[in-house]
Write a structure and sequence with these properties.
223 residues, mainly alpha, globular, receptor, transmembrane, transmembrane helix
């Protein structure tokens, strides 16, 4: 995959979001308002997408980024499950979105039938599954934030950086389509990227309003 300013900024935004979340957990030692289920989904996304670490070498940068995403997301899940006092502050009652039933299972079925169109290939199916799942993996986190209403600053910045990462990757795709004559278009990736960015739209709007007014960042609570 070729490098350009949009991809680089997208990657750095993704890395920054992880750093912010790790600071949120390690410094505050508090997981309130953070969805474990979203990060379990992201871990599944990275593990299924980056199986090519064992089969194909693209570049040192590419390999390091893949290992970083898997290792840091796994560490976040570990902290929220096992590390005191962090795990003791995790509110499982608020993080109750049925992610296996309503996200993982439908994405797996959709990936299976999508893969059948071009002939079944397990690695390709897992890659497509990761694309579908990443598009909706943030949903449990957004539900948790809506249930709490008020959003802590570092948590808000984490979500903002995650949304920025995906928006910048859309610009990366547009740039590559105009500058690379043999660029291979992946329309499933495009559609899922637009869906994923769209899920952040409401969050971006209320984040902007809170910064404009100088008040606390809050989302409308679920009625």
């Amino acid at each position: 995959m070729s490098m350009n300013i949009f991809r680089l900024c997208g990657d750095m935004s993704h890395v920054a979001s992880i750093i912010v979340l790790l600071l949120r957990l390690r410094v505050a030692k508090n997981a309130q308002g953070i969805s474990l289920r979203t990060h379990e989904l992201f871990l599944l996304v990275f593990v299924t997408r980056y199986l090519d670490l064992f089969t194909t070498y693209y570049s040192l940068y590419n390999s390091l980024m893949k290992m970083l995403y898997i290792a840091t997301t796994g560490y976040i899940v570990h902290m929220m499950r096992n590390v005191e006092p962090i795990c003791g502050t995790y509110d499982k009652a608020q993080d109750s979105f049925l992610h296996l039933k309503f996200l993982v299972a439908p994405c797996a079925v959709l990936a299976f039938f999508t893969n059948l169109i071009g002939g079944f290939n397990l690695m390709e199916m897992l890659w497509v599954f990761s694309i579908y799942l990443e598009a909706v993996a943030i949903l449990p986190q957004l539900v948790v934030l809506q249930r709490y209403g008020e959003v802590e600053n570092l948590t808000g910045n984490y979500i903002l950086l995650m949304g920025s990462y995906r928006a910048l990757y859309i610009l990366n795709w547009i740039w590559r389509s105009f500058t690379e004559p043999y660029y291979q278009h992946h329309y499933v990736v495009y559609i899922c990227g637009l869906i994923q960015t769209g899920l952040y739209a409401d969050f971006f709007y209320y984040y902007y309003l809170s910064k404009k007014s100088g008040g606390k960042f809050s989302l409308p609570t679920a009625g």
